[in-house]
Amino acid sequence: MWSYILKRTLSLIPILFIVSLVIFFIIHLTPGDPVSYMLGDEATEEQINNVREEMGLNLPIYEQYFHWIANVLKGDFGVSFHMNTTVLDAIFSHVAPTLSLAIFAQVIALLIAIPLGIIAAIKRGTIVDQAVMGLSLLGMAVPSFLLALFLVLLIGVHLQWLPIAGYQPLSSGLWNHLKYLILPAISLGSIQAALIARMTRSSMLEVLNNNYINMARSKGVSERKVIYSHALHNAFLPILTVIGQTFGALVTGAVITETIFNIPGLGQLIINSVERRDYTVIQGIVLFVTFIYVMLNLLIDLLYGVVDPRVRLDEK
């Protein structure tokens, strides 16, 4: 197992290098000057050139990249042009809301998707199965931002049950923390629940047709134990893969939802950084998010061996 972990960890290096290369050149080749934005319209050409020289933006682009990547390897992601703080401090100050939202949305997705997927598999071909699959298709078709706006209008504005925007840290109390996340978590989790439910149904149907399931039933094993102890356990690997992918999507793709609900997470940080042409922050966030995503994939691979001992990680 340790050799597998080491091999997978080393494989992250070229991925992160390619991502850093692509994002650096895309950002720096995009029209717009961060120095002009930072100094304002009244700055003279001499002032702009002096600041560009201080920041190293007057160097050839390949030299800028090598300087930046050398500092990244030392743990220095640079300093934000506009926030007067380091990039890592900016990321860490915004990552908690994003992770809280992603975890809460994933919990909602699992609570909805797993039971519905199991029920649809058990009731295959019935009106219940068709209803579950219809709901999942609707969930995949409706954009999360549209569902978010509908929830804001119905629950936040008309019923006034929950706040429609803002964020409170966990230190302010569990309920104060969660009540600001319920609406955005539902809007994100419902979309992911649709995908997980369809995968759960498909995986369960494949397992329920196996002979050992019929043998367990013929031996008098209760239907509940057959479903949850035998079928779900053996069908869980594909479901686990989708869970990992959806959680990665929640962490990396909540930009619009965070903007709608005014949540100060990574999504809002990267939107503000793009508007300000804050190159170092954009580059740092993309690398950070990429690292989280590939580490999630590594974690899912390791969990395969826990869920199913027949999976030998050393042989991959």
UniProtKB/TrEMBL annotation:
<dbReference type="Pfam" id="PF19300">
    <property type="entry name" value="BPD_transp_1_N"/>
</dbReference>
<dbReference type="GO" id="GO:0005886">
    <property type="term" value="C:plasma membrane"/>
</dbReference>
<keyword id="KW-1003">Cell membrane</keyword>
<feature type="transmembrane region" description="Helical">
    <location>
        <begin position="12"/>
        <end position="30"/>
    </location>
</feature>
<keyword id="KW-1133">Transmembrane helix</keyword>
<feature type="domain" description="ABC transmembrane type-1">
    <location>
        <begin position="95"/>
        <end position="304"/>
    </location>
</feature>
<feature type="transmembrane region" description="Helical">
    <location>
        <begin position="281"/>
        <end position="307"/>
    </location>
</feature>
<feature type="transmembrane region" description="Helical">
    <location>
        <begin position="235"/>
        <end position="261"/>
    </location>
</feature>
<keyword id="KW-0813">Transport</keyword>
<dbReference type="InterPro" id="IPR035906">
    <property type="entry name" value="MetI-like_sf"/>
</dbReference>
<feature type="transmembrane region" description="Helical">
    <location>
        <begin position="101"/>
        <end position="122"/>
    </location>
</feature>
<feature type="transmembrane region" description="Helical">
    <location>
        <begin position="134"/>
        <end position="157"/>
    </location>
</feature>
<comment type="similarity">
    <text>Belongs to the binding-protein-dependent transport system permease family.</text>
</comment>
<keyword id="KW-0472">Membrane</keyword>
<dbReference type="InterPro" id="IPR000515">
    <property type="entry name" value="MetI-like"/>
</dbReference>
<feature type="transmembrane region" description="Helical">
    <location>
        <begin position="177"/>
        <end position="197"/>
    </location>
</feature>
<dbReference type="Pfam" id="PF00528">
    <property type="entry name" value="BPD_transp_1"/>
</dbReference>
<protein>
    <submittedName>
        <fullName>ABC transporter permease</fullName>
    </submittedName>
</protein>
<dbReference type="InterPro" id="IPR045621">
    <property type="entry name" value="BPD_transp_1_N"/>
</dbReference>
<keyword id="KW-0812">Transmembrane</keyword>
<dbReference type="GO" id="GO:0055085">
    <property type="term" value="P:transmembrane transport"/>
</dbReference>
